[in-house]
């Protein structure tokens, strides 16, 4: 590692800058990127489960620029936006972006991270928001101690027992102040500015709650420890605002403000907001296909979205249910998938032999295939798609997602270019779980990913 620690070895001797624009051979890149800074610019604004690291997107964009396939000003699309890694990196490289996600928190985070803000407007909004906020929150505490009510505050639909008091009232006070500023702001960017500061409130909400630290799924800290949990909401929020403003300043100085980023709270199984043959490159990391035991995006997002973004409890509870393979999915299982993917057929056979979750796996890949079809529709003929997938397990059976992805895409007419393996050195995912919910019984999950690179059908 050199003094410039944002470097990666290509082959035995070639080195590239931290922007990875010099990549000319995808197979020579060490895709693990262990030790690299993954929180640069706005990437560090807010945590999110199973976040794709920015260097993957950066290297892919650099490679295809060098190949003359894409150039700044083209359109980059991500059908599974998550917290916006693809959109942020594409904007930094000078591209327009579009993205979909069914999770309201994901859509909001992507917009907040990808759209640059004028620094003078950012600082002005910050001054108006933070001015005498500490005094107002202290008054909330005093009112609560005196036994006064808070009839003027609309309490969010969080579940009872998940927040200390009066901290929940303090969070609502910040929420209402952002609302008022957005409604009365004199100048442009009111919605974008308010969205940006709600990110800090979202993170403060999670830190204030009784959510157990280090967990993306919803787990309460032990009741015996809750008496010691008395967070200072102002200090937490002020810290988040200061850090986020610094990150946005760094981002805004580097990004082309004339480019555009659009994010749709929408289902990529239909991708209704993305026009046919309009996209120049797709870079995405699909969900892992098991919200209940692996990555529960909705559980992670529930309280932050309800408090900071004023979403409803029912809407956020439904996020994991409507995801790929979720319990509230709408597509009927597509039995012919097994004919089109030998790897899927073999996997389902093993699951059926052991009375495993074959139906769940088939439902996930049916939904995933619908997204593949939409990607084929929106992507320009011959242009690239990169699927960043992990090979998880179901019922203790390894699911070769990279092989299934390749085979199903080839059925549609995609041309396979590369499958690039990478370790996951620091990704916050469970490496073990208890699929049978039996005490002491665990099963391995995933510690590696594959980047499946393909090109869209030519016709």
What would you say this structure looks like, in words?
With 459 residues, this protein is an alpha/beta fold. The chain has two domains: 19-103 and 262-289 and 324-455, Vaccinia Virus protein VP39 (Rossmann fold, 3-Layer(aba) Sandwich); 119-254, no CATH class. 41% of the residues lie in helices and 12% in strands. It has 15 helices and 13 strands. It has helices at 54-66, 85-92, 104-114, 119-130, 133-145, 167-184, 190-208, 233-254, 297-308, 313-317, 319-322, 337-340, 342-353, 358-378, 401-412; strands at residues 8-10, 14-16, 75-78, 96-101, 261-265, 281-284, 384-390, 393-394, 397-398, 415-423, 432-433, 443-444, 448-455. It is globular, with a radius of gyration of 23 Å. Residues 1-17 and 427-446 have low confidence and may be disordered. It catalyses: a 2'-deoxycytidine in DNA + S-adenosyl-L-methionine = an N(4)-methyl-2'-deoxycytidine in DNA + S-adenosyl-L-homocysteine + H(+).
Outline the fold blueprint.
Layout: E1 8-10, E2 14-16, H1 54-66, E3 75-78, H2 85-92, E4 96-101, H3 104-114, H4 119-130, H5 133-145, H6 167-184, H7 190-208, H8 233-254, E5 261-265, E6 281-284, H9 297-308, H10 313-317, H11 319-322, H12 337-340, H13 342-353, H14 358-378, E7 384-390, E8 393-394, E9 397-398, H15 401-412, E10 415-423, E11 432-433, E12 443-444, E13 448-455
Parallel strand pairs: 3-4, 3-6, 4-5, 6-7
Antiparallel strand pairs: 1-2, 7-13, 8-9, 10-13, 11-12
Protein name: site-specific DNA-methyltransferase (cytosine-N(4)-specific)
EC number: 2.1.1.113
Organism: Natrinema salifodinae
